[in-house]
Amino acid sequence: MIATDPATYAAALPDGGRLLGLDVGTQTIGTALCDAGWYFASPAELVRRTKFTADKAALAAIIAREGVAGLVIGLPLNMDGSDSPRTQSVRAFARNVEEFALPILLWDERWSTAAVERAMIAADMSRGKRAERIDNAAASYILQGAIDGLVRL
Prior knowledge:
The protein has 153 residues and is of the alpha/beta class. The chain contains 5 helices and 7 strands. Strands 1, 2, 3, 4, 5, 6 and 7 form a 7-stranded mixed beta sheet that branches. It is globular. The two termini are 19 Å apart.
C-alpha cells in the first residue's frame, strides 16, 4: 500500500514499530531509522545505487536487520506542488518496493536537502563532509517530519 495521507498510512501500520526513511537519488539512497515509539529519526547507512535488484537487496537487508514496520519515501515535488520527472521516478521506485509488503508513505520533501545543507553549513561542516552525509541527513529530516506528523494524528 502506497499512501500520501498520513492517516491512511498510520492505519496500515501496526502499533508503533521502526520506520525506514528513504531519500531516493539517482546515485545514492539516503536512509534513516526511527525508534519504535516514533520520537526521533537518525541517519543510517548510505546505499550506493547500482542495479535495482542490488539496491532492493540492500534495502531488504536493512529492513530485516532493523525490524522495519513501514517505509517513508521522500517525494520531490515542484515548488508549486506539481509532479516533475524526478517525482515520477520516485513514484515508480515506491511501486517497485511495494513487494516488501510494508506500508509506504510518500512524504513531501521539497525543502529537506536545502534545510539539512543550511544546518551543516551553520555547523561549519566542510564541503567534503557535507557531500558524504547529506543524503542520509536528508532521509532523517524527511522521516522526522513524517513521524512528527504521525504522532499528531
